[in-house]
Amino acid sequence: MSFFSEENRTLAREIIGRYPKRRSAMIPLLHVAQAQAGWVTEEAMVEIAELVDTTPAEVLGTCSFYEMFKREPVGKYLVNICATMSCALAGAAELMEHAEERLGVRAGGTTPDGLFTLASAECQAACTEAPCLQVNYRYRYRVDTDGFDQLVDDLAAGALDDEIPPHGVTARVRQHIPAGRAVGAVPPEAVNEPPVWIAASASNGAGSA
Amino acid sequence: MASYTIPHAPGFVANDAPRIVTERFDYRDSYTLGRYLATGGYEGLRAALERTPDDVHGEVRSATLLGRGGAGFPAGVKWGFCPPGVWPRYLVVNGDESEPGTYKDRLLMELDPHQLIEGCLIACYAVGLSQCFLYIRGEMAVAQERVAQALNEAYEAGWVGRNICGTDFSVDIVLHWGAGAYVVGEETALIESLEGNRGMPRLKPPYFPAAIGLYGQPTIVNNVETLANLPWILRHGAEAFTAIGTPTSPGTRMVAVSGHVQRPGVYEITNGTTTFRDLIYGEDYCGGMHPGRELKAFVPGGGSAPWFTPAQLDLPFEASEVGPQGSMLGSGAVMVMDDTTDIPAAALTLTKFYAHESCGKCVPCREGATWLERVLRRVCDGTGTPRDLDVLFEVGASICPGDFPHAAVPERGLEPKPFPYQMTTICFVGPSAFAPVHSAMTLFPEEFEARVAPNAHLDTGPSHGPASGTGPSDGPAANSISEVAIRV
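Above: the input entities. Below: the structure tokens describing the complete assembly.
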């Protein structure tokens, strides 16, 4: 039994094809796996290892380095409250305290209904809009306690389903390189001369690159 | 394609200063190809393609475009470090913005992705880079969507890919995305990550991946904002660019100002001449502190930068002036603390960040940052001892031996120690864990001494972070949470 769905297997092949070396596709494929299952399962890592021509241990090694990859199930909504400087100056600690109370779990915990995982996060690059948080990496800015309660209510009621996909799905618009327009990956071993526009310019005596 | 409306990022505040990279930000459809083409889009690329690659490189070199990612190295010079005769060469775009306080590359990616794409193409043409990898931070789902959409449009319209504009210039731009690791913003760690590995910085030398980078090949790593400047430079010329700002810091730069100011925002400022006072107090900028509050300290260049106090307000955004005064301009992030700020707790917030983000490769950083956090935490909690303050400096010295840069403290007759520092680590994460501790303890020693005084813990509640002002001092720092935390 393979882990990836037929659709994701095709997507994985398309992604791998863009890189000069297959292994470079590892992080993007881990994201595809997480989008499919909500977290990164062992079966997924085994299959990614096959796809990028390495061992499952190597995939685990890469996977475990990165914060976003969850190796056990998390809630449908991962609520990351920023705790870094600008948000801390704007009361992020109080927001977290409120969030823990509202959801009934400590930071790092998941609600019993499996809907919410609450986490403390590092700087999210929205520092002028502090305190901020992300739900499945979708921003909410200048969040106060009432705003947080409203957000939780809306998420629970499914009112934000259009904007916020379940955990694991990040970007929903994907790059697609049309076959007729693609140059193709440029592996180091396949090329040892300058690209044509450089060579042309050099042979005209104009360049020395 | 997305069936929902991609939300628009807030934060940018326009003013009368010249605009180079934010010139389209006022349009609601700034991210579309239609708007881009209607406002001079891809004209820089067209102009470049009519010249030789060397000529384009020369134009960028004479613009003295300083890298906007943190180190401030001139892009044109960096491009020149590729060893001759070694092919292929690659371009890696650093869109892994995650330095505390930094919020500009995300705006550039979300609001004007075609400008970034055009910048990538100009760089590839000039330096002979055969493939471009656009690495966007994993947590920035919306930026990934906007850039993906823009790339799809640009491929369809013939701006990217095979035979661009009908010439023999052909290059693919591959959208790549990370998965959450601050250290990956370091350029050699970025390359490791792009190769599918744990994102740990590589040993130096070589100091620049231009020599040995992606797959061992010559690789240019440029920041998003740096590349976003290129279309304008090619459209208007290096001379028009250097006419803005100062000769050593020309053009503009984007700066995010956050913290305790009236109008936090992302501003495009004139490089070299704008001062921190303009930025924090200017009516066109942040409009000063909240009523009744005073400026206590500010971080001038992202969480890694040593702190400044009101004594340094008149310094301009000019590396040659800020460096000797003990800090750096870094990634264009100013974090402002008013007189209600609990300084030890603020330092702890930043040190905790770097301790958490240490990749573990270098022992002084892995162990040092962790211990800095632990010791500082007990000082903040009021359970530390006077000896702990010495320990903090000792641990710091194991990461950065010798003098650590700091600002002048005129009232104590303390002279500035210039930037940079020496370090026992491969990259800047370790020193960055020490910077806030060292700054806070050097600029505000009394707040630390009060915290470790006998029985200090009896006056000190649990630490809630820098806004909560639980310190035992009798100054304004002892305010309650409600007085401090809320923005107007």
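Note for the figure: The two ends of chain B are 39 Å apart (CA to CA).
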